[in-house]
Amino acid sequence: MRWTTILAIYFLFWFLSLFLVLPFGVRTSEEVGKEKIPGQADSAPHEFRPLRIILRTSLVAAVLFLLFYLNYLYGWVTVDSFDFLFTPPANIRG
User: Fold this and answer.
1) Which of 13, 37, 46, 62 stands 20 to 30 A from 22 (CA)?
2) What is this structure's pTM?
3) Residue 28: CA atoms inside 13 Å, Cβ hemisphere, count?
4) Which is higher by pLDDT, 38 or 59?
């Protein structure tokens, strides 16, 4: 696998992980005990910590990519693993 392919797949996992990680650890102003700013959504986070989100996302993406790459090397799950989806049942003859 070329390094550009590895990089592209990692960034796909990174952006997928970003949407998985974003809702975790969010506390609203009401939960913290602070006053809500007029016009602020009830679900708006009290503090936005982009560095924490980037670190968590990178860690989750690295783990997912590692699993993907190990599967690529060792072939744990292949297209043949899903063969049952594409073969008709034995009792149907056509």
Assistant:
1) 37
2) 0.77
3) 10
4) 59
